[in-house]
Write a structure and sequence with these properties.
The protein is α/β, with parallel strands linked by helices and 488 residues long. Helix content is 50%, strand content 20%.
Length: 488
């Protein structure tokens, strides 16, 4: 009977020489010389850091260590030595996981993931999984940089990859890793729909439609949607789709246009693969303005179902966009207020409040203006434009009214959480509201970002760092989020 293999939890390190096969064809002697030098350095460095090489294969090795710290220390030493003449262009990938090994080799999920990580690496770099990076947090001698989340072959969920940034180690560009992993249809950026109406003042309408579709897509389980700030950074620019995909780390982009005339609206939408710039899907919608919520819902569901094979096995049939009001005048005023709010300037935020108050006067049961007015007052109070004794109670009043009308609007709970934090000093109540907002919208960069204010105030810095990383992944070009990341 064949004995069972040994099963251990270990730090798993894969190494591989870049360009070895090509070098063997052009200069076999040099290829063998560099391979032998690599093995000699590894034999010494792995043993020195209490590791064990359990498998040689061609120009690479598989080693295991008792701890992630020892594995990374060994990897750094290896790259330092191999960066000396004659240089060996070595790639290294490290993961912590379960491994089974016997006389015939090693196998298991941990081995597979470590191997995938190594294949994404480049010469003179060390890539590690988030599990490894977590083990390095309390060791200040290590420096690492997150390269983002990536889909790896035969791995169920996207994995966050870090590059060790010590000494002269090479940090691979995100574009290089994205090219190696291929296109992910689990991520989408919604670019601002172009205003094709004869009246340029209708831009508020096209921007509003874009944001509503974006918010609807965030409700789709398994789909990562880039937040508004990063998507709208490309407004009015004729940027190549492949470049947008690289900058925002998305596999698909939705773009389109809106033409409003009288009581009719024409919306065009097309979904584009960022790997090659080709259209995945496109459609034109001609509708009456009073059907605008149905159009937004139809577009969102069609996009989600186009991607559903990569998201889940079930087709998405439930509504993603609520019909909040039948009064188009109230909705128009809301979109105008939203347009002013997004300028992030006190003068325009005050204009937004005026428009939103008009929207409420036209349709008192329309919830969206209440939620947005709450955000406006909280913002004006936070920057000191309005006294806190006036701004925060007003923010709380409108947030509670919005929650009374519809408790599923995450922005209302975020506003309420901020008031509880900075005005009521109610940390427990603030956290409860933040967590409720995150439950309603786990893909909201704003919810994750704002939650870090509470976490930092309580010196829960590791948790704050986790949430700001998620926010940054969702909204990579946001100055505010990048600034908070630096502060944390």
């Amino acid at each position: 009977m064949k004995p069972e293999g040994i099963r251990v939890l270990a730090a798993i390190m894969f190494t591989d020489m870049e360009g070895y096969t090509a070098l063997m064809q052009s200069d076999e002697d040099l290829a063998k010389k560099l391979r032998d030098r690599q093995r000699q350095v590894l034999d010494t460095a792995v043993l020195l850091h209490k590791g064990k090489i359990i498998q040689y294969y061609g120009d690479g090795t598989l080693s295991i260590f008792g701890s992630a710290v020892e594995a990374v220390e060994s990897a750094i030493k290896i790259q330092e030595e191999l960066n000396k003449d004659p240089k060996v262009p070595l790639r290294i990938g490290i993961h912590v996981g379960d491994i089974v090994y016997d006389d015939e080799g090693a196998y298991g999920d941990g081995v597979n993931i470590a191997s995938r990580i190594e294949s994404l690496s480049v010469a003179q770099s060390i890539l590690v999984s988030s599990k490894v990076n977590d083990e390095l947090k309390n060791h200040p001698q290590f420096h690492s940089i997150s390269l983002g989340h990536f889909d790896l072959k035969n791995v169920d969920t996207p994995l966050e990859i870090f590059s060790i940034a010590n000494n002269n180690l090479v940090i691979p560009p995100e574009e290089t890793i994205r090219f190696k992993t291929g296109t992910s249809f689990k991520s989408v950026a919604v670019l601002p729909f172009v205003n094709m109406s004869s009246d340029p003042d209708n831009e508020y309408f096209s921007d509003g439609i874009t944001e509503e579709i974006l918010n609807a897509l965030t409700k789709v389980d398994g789909l990562r949607v880039t937040s508004r700030t990063s998507s709208f950074a490309f407004k009015g620019k004729n940027t190549d789709m492949r470049e947008i995909g690289a900058k925002l780390n998305v596999g698909t982009v939705l773009e389109g246009s809106v033409r409003k005339a009288g009581n009719r609206v024409r919306i065009t939408a097309q979904l584009i693969n960022t790997a090659d710039g080709y259209h995945v899907w496109s459609e034109v919608y001609d509708r009456k303005l009073e059907d605008i919520f149905e159009v937004q819902d139809e577009i969102s569901i069609k996009i989600a179902n186009r991607l559903r094979e990569k998201l889940s096995s079930k087709q998405i049939n439930e509504k993603l966009v609520k019909s909040y009001t039948n009064n188009f005048e109230a909705y128009k005023l809301f979109l105008q207020g939203l347009y002013e709010w997004n300028k992030w300037d006190p003068y325009f935020v005050k204009k937004a409040i005026e428009l939103l108050e008009k929207s409420i006067s036209v349709a008192p049961e329309f919830v969206l203006p209440y939620a947005l007015i709450s955000s406006c007052y909280v913002y004006l109070g936070a920057i000191g434009y309005i006294g806190t004794k006036r701004a925060y109670p007003l923010g709380k009043k409108y947030a509670l009214k919005a929650i009374e009308l519809d408790s599923t609007i995450p922005d209302s709970h975020i506003s309420l959480a901020v008031v509880k934090l900075f005005y009521d000093w109610d940390f427990k109540g603030s956290e409860k509201s933040f967590l409720h907002a995150l439950k309603l919208s786990p893909g909201s960069a704003d919810a994750h970002h704002t939650f870090t204010y509470l976490l930092s105030a309580q010196q829960r810095n590791d948790e704050a760092l986790d949430h700001i990383k998620i926010a940054l992944e969702l909204d990579q070009l946001s100055t505010r989020i990048n600034h908070s990341y630096g502060e944390i």
